[in-house]
Amino acid sequence: MCGIVGYTGWREAQVVLLNNLARLEYRGYDSCGLALRGSPLTIVKDAVRVAELAKTITPVKSTSGIGHTRWATHGPPCKINAHPHLDCTGSIAVVHNGVITNYEKLRKQLTEEGHKFISETDTEVISHLVEKYLKGNLEEAVNSALKVLEGSYAIIVIADNDPALVFARKDSPMILGIGEKEYFIASDVPALLEYTNRVIYLEDGDAGVVTPQGIKITHAGQPVTREENKIHWTADQAQKGGYEHYMLKEIHEQPSILRETISEYLSSQSSSDISSFYGNNKSVLMLACGTSYHAAMIGKYVTEKLLNTSVRLEMASEFNYLSRTPYFPLTIGITQSGETADTLKALRRAKEAHSMVMAITNVVGSTASRSSNYVLYTRAGPEISVAATKSFTAQLGALYWLALSQSSLSIPEILLHEFRHLPSKVQEVLDMEEVIKLSANKLAGYENVFFIGRGINYPVALEGALKLKEISYIHSEAYAAGEIKHGPFALLSNKTPVIAIVMRDNCHDAMLTTIKEIRARGSPVFAIVEDTDTAIVDMADYLIPVPSIMDIFSPFITSVVMQLLAYFTAKKRGCPIDFPRNLAKSVTVE
Ligand code: M6R
User: Fold this and answer.
1) In angstroms, what is the span from residue 11 Cα to ligand 1's centroid?
2) Is 340 in the pocket of ligand 1 (CB under 6 A)?
3) Which protein residue has the closest C-alpha to ligand 1 atom 11?
4) Which of 419, 407, 514, 508 is nearest to 455 (CA)?
5) Backbone CA torsion sign across 590, 567, 463, 371
6) Atom of ligand 1 at shortest distance to CA of 583?
């Protein structure tokens, strides 16, 4: 799970590559490096962030190069394991995202043939293979190397004596950017937006070369053309926009994202695209990981409530190890990035079992979108912070719309009305930021926190615990409120606060009972409550009021409270919010 970039044109390559790499750090940031064309190649790499690396580079007159930002998979983060990786002569350099599964066998063979390896990475076999096959033409040598590689890759190869950047992709994302007499290669769109919004999404199995004169793309050895797309995100949208962290910016984008998403879904065009998905089928399988799994839990609840359809929900990573693939006529994969390895594998498995697959994804051109029969895009825009926030809300929007739009009856006006008004309800929660910050400042002093919810807000409690642990490093666990007395009670004390989601739905009375029991054990209670609910006022230590909302829509606002609580708690603790330790935005390895 890494970010790769390439550039060839007329600008100073090192400036372009460093800028573009900085925007890919959400894909991995434990080390980074560059190779710049010249004779010899200039290689700069280290186990540092891109900004640190930039300080160490002396200007090089080169208008062509490649770069990499790494999330370690083979060998720990260190200078030697950082990309680019070189051949024995130091004249060929490779950057790679993905995993070469047969690298041990190849490394052994190449070593026997006299090649010397210096890193622990799987990637290094690629540069040595290219060296082995190079007979004057870099593209041909790369193509020969690709024939023996197994696994996943997006690679860019540069050599000191060849004008081309040679690229290839298989099961790892890669795009080309088109400028005026200049070309870019990257793992993802935000990397390029400062320079161009003209992009080509490469297909799996594509390879080719870019030079300042143009692009050549091949597939299975044959030249192909790929459509050029215009990206409507601005470079500014992909930046922090004045907020201290991407995460806070992305939390604040939620009302406008919901507004756009809802109006797009309500347009006839979007609904006609998915109108035939359910047909007469009455059961569906949902697959997802992490935050997307929590969105899917809510999606299951809503689908079963609004449609006469039963939903089986599986964590994609577990589904892949079921002894028998269950048959479902329909499968929905929920994945923000569209590149999560576990989810892609599970979707493939479902497809092989003859299921009709829909991807709900935020990334146009992602692997999930390409490999599915239907795609319902979320319109969250680029999400840079590792912690998913706006993409989760956008996933909820998509899942609710899918359930609403597939109903054979016309959608009750009251539901549509509430759906349309979600952006302003979310805005009301954002306007309560200072109140939420007060609770967060208290939470920041604890090392263990419980979250509880019931019914449709149980997944929100799970998401709250995930958000808090990933960015504040506080140990947090979530329970369905009714389960907390079946074991977790043993841990309750004045050192273990409990965050309770208490909306006025059919779980309200049961939640109040649980809260009384928790307080009797001495745990401080932070309650998220509707602002008109007086029943709980004397029962909680800290109240976080939210606007009243129709039961079924409450996750849209309670989850925003969870995001802000996690954000301000992490901020109080001085954590690196956008780039939490050991995590990466897109988990493209199993
Ligand atoms: O891209 P995906 O939605 O498939 O990602 C799945 C998880 O890795 C992701 O939701 C992860 O849990 C979040 N970044 C946590 O905030």
Assistant:
1) 36
2) yes
3) 290
4) 508
5) negative
6) 14
Give the pLDDT band (50/70/90) at residue 405: confident
The reported pLDDT for the residue numbered 406 is 80
Q: What is the pLDDT of residues 191-246, one digit of tens each?
A: 999 999 999 999 989 999 999 999 999 999 999 999 999 887 766 666 676 688 99
CA–CA separation, 45 and 105 (whole Å): 27
587 lines ligand 1 (CB under 6 A): yes
Contact 174/155 with Cβ under 8 angstroms? no
How far, in Å, is the centroid of ligand 1 from the Cα of 559? 15
- Alpha carbon distance 366, 246 (integer Å): 22
Phi, psi of 211 (to 5 degrees): -135, 170
Bridge partners, residue 377, by sequence = 361
- Gap between the Cα atoms of 337 and 391, Å rounded: 9
Dig out the tokens for 230 from the structure. 């215009």
CA of 398 to the centre of ligand 1 (A): 16
Q: CA-to-CA distance for 467 and 332, rounded, in angstroms?
A: 24
Structure tokens at 83: 């990309």
Cβ proximity of 34 and 17 under 8 Å: yes
pLDDT digits (tens, 9 = 90+) for 85-143: 999 999 999 999 988 989 999 999 999 999 999 999 999 999 999 999 999 999 999 99
Q: Report the distance separating Cα 148 and Cα 208, nearest Å.
A: 17
Distance 585 CA to ligand 1 centre (A): 7
Question: Which pLDDT score, from 0 to 100, does residue 269 have?
Answer: 47
Taking the CA atoms of the chain, what radius of gyration do you get in angstroms?
25
Q: How far is the CA of 563 from the centre of ligand 1 (A)?
A: 14
- Count CA atoms closer than 13 A to 59's CA, side-chain side: 4
Pick the atom of ligand 1 nearest to 585's CA: 14
Place of tokens 């509880």: 452
Q: Is 343 in the pocket of ligand 1 (CB under 6 A)?
A: yes
> Average pLDDT, stretch 531-535?
90
Ligand 1 contact, 367 CB (< 6 A): no
Q: Domains in the chain, ordered, with CATH?
A: 3-237 (3.60.20.10), 240-420 (3.40.50.10490), 431-577 (3.40.50.10490)
- Active site positions, annotated: 2, 585
Pocket test for ligand 1, best of 71, 245, 340, 371 (most atoms within 8 A of CB): 340
CA distances from 44 to 4, 21, 355, 425 (A): 15, 13, 48, 49
Q: Are 89 and 71 in contact (CB under 8 A)?
A: no
